[in-house]
Design goal:
- Helix content is about 10%, strand content about 55%.
- A hairpin with a 4-residue loop joins strand 14 and strand 15.
- It is mainly β.
- The N terminus is likely disordered.
- Strands 14, 15, 16, 17, 18, 19, 20, 21, 22, 23, 24, 25 and 26 form a 13-stranded antiparallel sheet that branches. A 12-stranded antiparallel barrel has the order 1-2-3-4-5-6-7-8-9-10-11-12. Strands 29-28-27-38-37-36-35-34-33-32-31-30 form a 12-stranded antiparallel sheet, covered by helices on one side.
- The chain contains 8 helices and 38 strands.
Length: about 675
C-alpha cells in the first residue's frame, strides 16, 4: 500500500511539471550575448594550425575584427566579422541565439535563408537540432547544431573556464560536410575552434584548428605578455649589403679552441620553393653561406654551407625550410616537422626530426655592449647519429647579435663541437654602428623615419591595383596543384626527362636523373611558381608599417613608383596596370627586369611571357651579366599553366641555354 502512495505522488509531481507553461520550462540558463561580445572594434588574433595531407603541420595567423554592421532587412541587423584576408561572416548574437546570416569567403557575399542557428540558449544539451537552408549561390544544405554544455579550455591567451561548447555541421547535396566545434568564453568570445572538412570527390578529410593568442574585447586586453605575437621583421632587418661582424669561437671534442673574426653580409638572391631567397655570404669563404627567406611564412633558411674547422665543407638543403621564427609562433610552444635525412647526394629513409621554439626574451652581453630584450629562438634537430641545437639571439633593429651551436653524438653523448658567436660591429641600412647603444638609437631613428615618411595614396593605389592584376594560382579559389612531365635540354645537349610536382601551397618537388639537372630545374620551376603566388591580403605584404610608396615622374613607359622600407630598394615603372620595369639592389650588384611581352587572360589579369634581366655593378651602368626568358602558357581546364621556356644567360657559372617543355600536366585530386 505504501508503495502505491509513492507511485501516485510521483505521477502527480510529473503531471504538475508538464503542466507548467512551455516558455517557463525552457527559460535560458545563460545570456548568449555575454559569451560573444560584438562591439565595433573588438578584435581576436588566432593561431591557425592546419593538418596537411602530406603529414606536415602548417601554421598562420588569423585576426578577426568587428567591422561595422549590415542591415539585412527592415528589422534584421548583422555584425560583420572581418578577417585579415578581407573575408567575413555576417552574424548576430542576442540573449537567446547565435546565428550566421551569410559570409564572403573571397568569391562574393553569400546569404543564408534561413540563417544558420549555431546555438539557442534553450537547446537541450546533447540533442541534435536539424534545419534546412538555401544559400543565395546554390543548392539547399542541411544543418545540424548540437550544444554540449560547458567545458574548460586552455589556449595561448590563457585558461578559460566554463566555455560553451557547440558543434555545427552543414551537409551539401554532394555529400561534402563542414563540421565546426566552437568554444565560447564568457566576456571573450570564441577561444578555440576545430574545423573538419570532408570531400567525397577527393575521398579525404581536412582538419584545422584555431586557438586564441590575444585580443581586445570591449576595451579589455585578452592574454598576458607571454601571449604576444612577434613581428619577426623587426628583429631581422636586412638590406642587400648590410653586414655583421662577429667573434666566432669553435671548440672541438678534443678541447681544441679557436676564435676567428667572421663577417657576414647579404649579397645575391635566387628563386626557391619558398620564393625569393637572399644569400648571407661569409668572409670565411664561399663554402660558408646561408640562403634566407623572410615573408609571411616567417624567417627560414632553405640552404646553408658550413666549412668551419673541417677540411671538407658540408652543404645542407632544407625541405621544408628550416624555420627560425614566425609572427604566429607562441612563445614557449614548440613547432615540429621532419624531412628525409641527407647523406651526400643520397637520401635515406631515416627522417630528421626538427623542432623550433621561441623561448622568450633575454639580455645578451657582446663586444658591442649589452643588448636588452633579445628574442631567443631555438632550433633543434636529431639525425640517426647526432643531436644538434642552435640558439639565435636577435636584437630589434639589428638582427642576430649572438649565436650558440652544439652537436652531440647519440652513441656516447660526446659533445663533438660547439660554436659561440658574439657581434662586434655592424652596418645596417648603410649606417655603421660600433656599440649596442648606437644600434638602439639607429633602430629608433629608422622606425621614426619610416613612421613619419609620407605614403603617397596615389602611388599605393596604383601599385596595389597592379599587384592584384597579376595572374596567380590561388588555393583559396580551388587551385589543387599538379604533376608534370618535362623534357629538358641544357646547352643543346640530349633531352633529359624530368618529373615535377607542384602542391596546392605551391611547393615544388623535382625528380631528375642527376643532382645538377635537379638543382637547375628546381630553380626554373620555382621561378614560374613564385610569379604565380598570391600577394593577399595586400597590407600583409605592403601595409603602412612595412612599406611607404612614393610617386615618381611620368615616363614614356609608365609611372615611376619607389618603395621605402623594402630590403632591396625597389623601383618600379608601372603602365597599363602592369609592371613594365623593376630595379633592385643586391649589395655590390644591381639588376633591372624589363618585361617585354605578356598575355591577358579572360578576367583581364596578365602573365609576363618575355622578360630580360640585366645585372650591373652598383652605382654604375657597367653590365656584368644578362638573362633572357621566353615563356609560353596554355589554358588547361580552369587555369593557365606553363607550356615551355627558353632561358638564355651570360652569367658566369650558369648554362648558356636551358630549354624546357611540358609534355604532360595533370591536376592533383
Amino acid at each position: 500500500m505504501k508503495r502505491i502512495f509513492v507511485l501516485i505522488a510521483i505521477a502527480i509531481a510529473f503531471a504538475l511539471f508538464n503542466s507548467l507553461p512551455e516558455n517557463k520550462a525552457q527559460e535560458p540558463k545563460f545570456n548568449l550575448r555575454e559569451f560573444y561580445p560584438l562591439a565595433d572594434g573588438n578584435t581576436w588574433t588566432y593561431q591557425v594550425k592546419q593538418y596537411r595531407a602530406d603529414g606536415q603541420l602548417a601554421y598562420r595567423l588569423r585576426t578577426q575584427t568587428i567591422a561595422g554592421e549590415e542591415k539585412l532587412d527592415h528589422q534584421t541587423v548583422a555584425k560583420k566579422l572581418m578577417d585579415d584576408r578581407g573575408q567575413y561572416y555576417l552574424l548576430a548574437v542576442d540573449e537567446r541565439s547565435f546565428r550566421v546570416f551569410g559570409e564572403n569567403a573571397g568569391q562574393g557575399e553569400v546569404k543564408i535563408n534561413p540563417p544558420y542557428t549555431l546555438l539557442e540558449a534553450s537547446h537541450t544539451p546533447g540533442k541534435v537540432y536539424t534545419s534546412r537552408h538555401v544559400p543565395s549561390d546554390g543548392d539547399a544544405v542541411t544543418s545540424e547544431s548540437t550544444f554540449f554544455g560547458v567545458e574548460s579550455v586552455q589556449t595561448p591567451a590563457g585558461a578559460f573556464k566554463d566555455c560553451l561548447k557547440l558543434r555545427f555541421q552543414s551537409l551539401k547535396p554532394s555529400g561534402a560536410t563542414l563540421t565546426t566545434t566552437s568554444y565560447l568564453a564568457k566576456s571573450v568570445g570564441i577561444v578555440r575552434e576545430v574545423f573538419e572538412v570532408f570531400s567525397p570527390a577527393a575521398e579525404q578529410s581536412l582538419r584545422y584548428e584555431i586557438e586564441l593568442i590575444h585580443g581586445s574585447v570591449n576595451g579589455r586586453k585578452i592574454g598576458d605578455d607571454t601571449a604576444q605575437t612577434i613581428k619577426v621583421a623587426e628583429y631581422f632587418p636586412f638590406h642587400q649589403g648590410d653586414s655583421w661582424t662577429y667573434d666566432w669561437t669553435y671548440r672541438l671534442s678534443n678541447g681544441q679552441t679557436r676564435t676567428t673574426e667572421r663577417r657576414r653580409w647579404f649579397e645575391g638572391a635566387k628563386f626557391t620553393n619558398a620564393g625569393a631567397a637572399f644569400k648571407l655570404a661569409s668572409s670565411t669563404g664561399e663554402e660558408d653561406y646561408q640562403f634566407y627567406v623572410l615573408d609571411r611564412g616567417g624567417l627560414r633558411i632553405i640552404e646553408s654551407g658550413e666549412k668551419g674547422m673541417r677540411a671538407q665543407g658540408v652543404r645542407f638543403n632544407y625541405d621544408p625550410a628550416l624555420l627560425i621564427a614566425r609572427d604566429d609562433m607562441v612563445i614557449g610552444r614548440t613547432y615540429r616537422w621532419s624531412q628525409p635525412e641527407q647523406d651526400g647526394k643520397d637520401r635515406k629513409a631515416t627522417l630528421i626530426q626538427f623542432a623550433s621554439t621561441l623561448d622568450g626574451f633575454e639580455n645578451v652581453e657582446t663586444p658591442m655592449g649589452r643588448y636588452e630584450n633579445c628574442l631567443r629562438a631555438r632550433v633543434e634537430w636529431e639525425t640517426s647519429s647526432s643531436r644538434v641545437k642552435n640558439i639565435y639571439y636577435y636584437a630589434r633593429g639589428v638582427g642576430m647579435v649572438a649565436y650558440e651551436y652544439e652537436v652531440i653524438t647519440k652513441r656516447d653523448s660526446t659533445v663533438m663541437m660547439t660554436i659561440n658567436g658574439r657581434i662586434k660591429e655592424a652596418t645596417i641600412s648603410g649606417n655603421k654602428v660600433m656599440t649596442a647603444d648606437e644600434a638602439k638609437k639607429l633602430w629608433g631613428r629608422i622606425s621614426a623615419e619610416l613612421g613619419a615618411a609620407e605614403d603617397n595614396p596615389q602611388a599605393r593605389a596604383l601599385f596595389k591595383e597592379t599587384s592584384l592584376n597579376r595572374y596567380v594560382w590561388d588555393s583559396d579559389l580551388g587551385f589543387r596543384g599538379f604533376t608534370a612531365d618535362l623534357a629538358i635540354k641544357i646547352d643543346g645537349g640530349a633531352t633529359v626527362p624530368v618529373k615535377v610536382k607542384c602542391s596546392p601551397s605551391l611547393e615544388i618537388e623535382i625528380e631528375a636523373p642527376d643532382a645538377t639537372t635537379k638543382i637547375l630545374i628546381h630553380e626554373e620551376m620555382s621561378q614560374f611558381v613564385t610569379h604565380r603566388q598570391p600577394r593577399k591580403p595586400f597590407d600583409a605584404w605592403y601595409g603602412p608599417d612595412k612599406a611607404k610608396f612614393k610617386l615618381g615622374k611620368e615616363t614614356t613607359e609608365g609611372r615611376e613608383i619607389f618603395i621605402e622600407g623594402d630590403s632591396m630598394g625597389s623601383h618600379y615603372i608601372i603602365g597599363d596596370r602592369r609592371v613594365i620595369r623593376l630595379s633592385r639592389s643586391m649589395g655590390r650588384m644591381e639588376f633591372t627586369i624589363f618585361n617585354r611581352k605578356h598575355i591577358q587572360v579572360e578576367d583581364g589579369r596578365y602573365i609576363a611571357t618575355e622578360y630580360e634581366v640585366s645585372y650591373y655593378v652598383s652605382g654604375t651602368k657597367q653590365e656584368v651579366g644578362h638573362d633572357s626568358f621566353v615563356d609560353t602558357y596554355v589554358k588547361q581546364n580552369a587555369y593557365w599553366v606553363p607550356k615551355s621556356r627558353v632561358h638564355t644567360s651570360t652569367i658566369k657559372g650558369k648554362p648558356a641555354k636551358i630549354e624546357l617543355e611540358v609534355l604532360r600536366l595533370e591536376y592533383l585530386r
